[in-house]
Amino acid sequence: MIICHCLQISDHEIRAAVDWMRASDPETIITPGKIYHALGKRADCGGCMPLFLDTMRSCDNLGVPPVIRGLRSGKEGAAHEGRRQGHRISQRRAAV
Question: How wide is the angle at C-alpha 75 spanned by C-alphas 70 and 76, nearest 5°?
Answer without folding.
Answer: 130
